[in-house]
Amino acid sequence: MFVGHFALGFAAKRAAPRASLGALFLAAQFADVLWPVLVAAGIESVRIAPGITAFTPLDFVSYPYSHSLVALAVWGAALGAVCQIAIGGRATFVVIAALVLSHWLLDFVTHRPDMPLYPGSATYGLGLWNSVAATVIVELAMFAAGVWIYAASTRARDRAGRWSFIALVTFLVIAYAGNVAGGPPPSVAAIYWAGIAGAAVILVWGWWTDSHRAIVPRRA
Ligand SMILES: [Zn+2]
How many A from CA of 160 to the centre of ligand 1? Predict the structure, then answer.
């Protein structure tokens, strides 16, 4: 899943308004931020296997530290604690930890049975990726809802806050479309470099956009 994770990051702004969109994206995407680094380091592994699912040609051979349920619970608690100390706010710890954990649930729905519960466990997955149409419908519906909630929870302080938000949403949709329409990646190195660079750009963009937007007070 790709834009579905960002959907939850956007939507979480309502629940944890003090957390920057950059932090919320980092939490929702923590598994996929860590994963390319661990693949590059040779600790986790992926194979390019066109046809393995209708949606993605990637065969996630092993990713116990970035994508098992137990690992993500630990990462979630750690990132939640860091964010709670750094930014405060009543709901910050719970929202950040839940976002990190949500990655497992969404990937469990989309992936073929390759998601571990803990390092070395059996693997699970419901296989939404076996249908391109179903994947795109579910993810875009989630994304639209998440963007709508963020747009309703914040307002632009200035022109940058308006246009950076619109450009970020457009960029994510275009990147997703490229994912859907593009062929298999040329190499595993291309996968992790794209993953690391893409994550860096999106996290900084999310943080910068959010810094140009203000919270809309909720009506009682
Ligand atoms: Zn993932």
Answer: 30
Report the separation in Å between the CA atom of 32 and the middle of ligand 1, taken as the mean of its atom positions: 5
Distance 69 CA to ligand 1 centre (A): 11
Residue 196 C-alpha to ligand 1 middle, in angstroms? Answer: 13
What is the average pLDDT across 42-54?
A: 95
33 Cα to the center of ligand 1, angstroms: 9
CA of 167 to the centre of ligand 1 (A): 24
Q: How far is the CA of 90 from the centre of ligand 1 (A)?
A: 28
At 217 the pLDDT is 86
Q: Model-level pTM?
A: 0.95
Q: HEC states along the chain?
A: CCHHHHHHHHHHHHHCCCCCHHHHHHHHCHHHHHHHHHHHCCCCEEEECCCCCCCCCEEEEECHHHHCHHHHHHHHHHHHHHHHHHHCCCCHHHHHHHHHHHHHHHHHHHCCCCEECCCCCCEECCCHHHCHHHHHHHHHHHHHHHHHHHHHHEEECCHHHHHHHHHHHHHHHHHHHHHHHCCCCCCHHHHHHHHHHHHHHHHHHHHHHHHCEEECCCCC
Q: Provide the pLDDT for residue 220.
A: 56
Report the pLDDT value the prediction gives residue 47, as an integer from 0 to 100: 96
State pLDDT tens for residues 172-183: 999 999 988 888
Read off the pLDDT of residues 121-161 as tens digits, 9 standing for 90 and up.
999 999 999 999 999 999 999 999 999 999 999 999 999 99
